Input
Amino acid sequence: MKQLLLVVLTALVFSQTASAQKKIWDETEAQKQERMQWWTDARFGMFIHWGLYAQAARHEWVKKNERISDEDYQKYFEIFNPDLFDPADWACKAKAAGMKYAVITTKHHEGFNMFDSEFTDYKVTNTPYGKDIIKEWVDAFRAEGLGIGFYYSLIDWHHPEYTIDRVHPMSAKTQEEYDELNKDRDMSIYRDYLKNQVREILTNYGKIDILWLDYSFPGKFGKGREDWGSVDLMKMVRELQPGILVNDRADLKDYAGGWDFTTPEQFKVQKWPEEDGVKIPWETCQTFSGSWGYFRDEYTWKDNKQLLVLLIESVSKGGNLLLNVGPTARGTFDYRADKALAEMGEWMKYNSRSIYGCTQAPENFEVPANTLLTYNPETNRLYVHLLDYPLKNFLMRDYGDKIKYAQFLHDASEIKIGKPYGHWVQQETGENDVNLLLPVNKPNVEIPVIEIFLK
Ligand code: GLC
Output
């Protein structure tokens, strides 16, 4: 018995020290929620993937996909000169689309730095463009009141000490091949470089709201937290920018303070993501057309309705949408991106009240067919997004004791509430069901929204 007690006690102490070690910083759940509040309310941000790959114009992974050598990739560095870059114009477009924050690639996997760095020559200030793009970008986006986010690639296909792995352009097949390729490479030198650079971007540009590290791929010929020095890195990040929000790709999922939100990529979640049965903050990142960097010949662009549904559906499941633009090497947005942003902005101008500050509706509200619900807990209003416009009568089951008033959101016109009527209907409906009487013609809005003032 005594022995058993000892074993249990040791296990307890052990697990406690283990969990104490697995902490990057101290914060209560309430403090975390408060730190993330602006982002949770914002719901909609712009991702920007921009680098040398914009010149190849065929995917930001072009160096890997075509196994291009450093020598052959060098031509992009030598001519990089986005002469039409006007960050104030970008910021204006993001804001007009209804976005509240933006995240830009300071360095993507290709290893090229869009910012001025002490630690490398492979940077924008050494190209014909000659200026610190990140500085110009931050100034312009901040001036529009947008949240400032930095994407930084953990992966680096240019640094000479970065060891070759399975996603590297020089990837191999066997252990022997990797050993040979990596015999003169020292990952610890890259690890310092990475830390130094993250320190630079979090020191030289004022308050940074989001850090987006990308990405870990542990396992055979892969890389994870040991390779990046993630624990150390994240401690520094929290020290330098205590208010910052960090994504979940540094392989620190089991560390308190190792991440703030999860990032389903190009993927629509079925329900609000959970961890150990607890709903967690999440943001889906999505492209207009498939690739993140500018891709001239890609034609799989999502249409306005698909993009709006992406946004609304994310909010209806308690999440955010980070929607990507891949600017051209001249520094402009593709005309299709401009069009998509403008159309979303048109909808947001009238309907953003169903997005900002909103979340998943409480479970006791039944979701009518072909709709998405969002809910604002502050104002106690429910938003019914009509994905397929109904014919006049819109039945809401079990809402009789819940609705005070209903209107269209875009024009604040009253929607009359009645009882289900007609002979058929009576047989199919219950006491507490109500019928909203909609106009026959679909309002001139891509996805009309009913705003319900709840009792
Ligand atoms: C992936 C890709 C990358 C892109 C990112 C955005 O990890 O490697 O090209 O930047 O996703 O989420």
Observations:
- The pocket of alpha-D-glucopyranose is lined by residues 49, 60-61, 214-215, 265, 285, 292 (CB under 6 Å).
- The two ends are 59 Å apart (CA to CA).
- Residues 30-354 form a domain with the TIM Barrel fold (CATH 3.20.20.80).
- Confidence is low (pLDDT under 50) at residues 4-20.
